[in-house]
Every structure is written in C-alpha cells, then in structure tokens.
Structure to design on (97 residues):
C-alpha cells in the first residue's frame, strides 16, 4: 500500500522521541485516532505493596497501519499533534483475529 500520510512515522516526516509504550487498543471510533490502554505497576512505600494501574492514551493511527480494537501495539512519543494526541502508533505487535 502506498502511504501518502505526512504524519506517518514510517513513510512520512514525523519524528518520534522519548517513551515507547506497549498496550492494547480499546477504541478505534475516532478518525485517525486510537485509544491505547497501558497496564503498569507502581510501588506504594507506605504499605510495601505493588499496585496495578492502567492508563488510557490517545494516539495517532496512520492509515497504512490499519489498527483495530484488540490489537497489541507499540506507541512512541512525538510532538503534540492535537489537544489530546502526543503519541503515534509505530508497530502492531500482535493482531487480534
């Protein structure tokens, strides 16, 4: 597929930097945007226990990626693309069948 998207990190001119996060796509309803849920643990020093948390991150999804709900993806930090998007999908790790 020939990608003409200038915001595509592979075929376009968008540079990535900083964090790379792996997560699961939980929503793909918005145009060119996916919501990625990232699960992580944090340590509570007071109680000496680990706590599981999740965060939902809005990421730009280039058209050449064809990301769907349920896919395991890697997202990378980039310049601010809109009010809510500062990440872009760089790789689909595992597709949901």
């Amino acid at each position: 597929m020939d990608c003409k998207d200038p915001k595509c990190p592979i075929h376009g001119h968008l540079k990535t930097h900083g964090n790379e996060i792996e997560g699961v796509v939980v929503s793909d309803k918005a145009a060119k945007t996916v919501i990625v849920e990232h699960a992580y643990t944090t340590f509570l020093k007071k109680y000496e226990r680990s706590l599981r948390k999740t965060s939902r991150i809005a990421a730009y999804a280039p058209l050449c990626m064809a990301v769907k709900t349920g896919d395991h993806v890697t997202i990378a930090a980039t310049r601010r693309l809109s009010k809510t998007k500062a990440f872009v999908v760089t790789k689909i790790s595992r597709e949901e069948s």
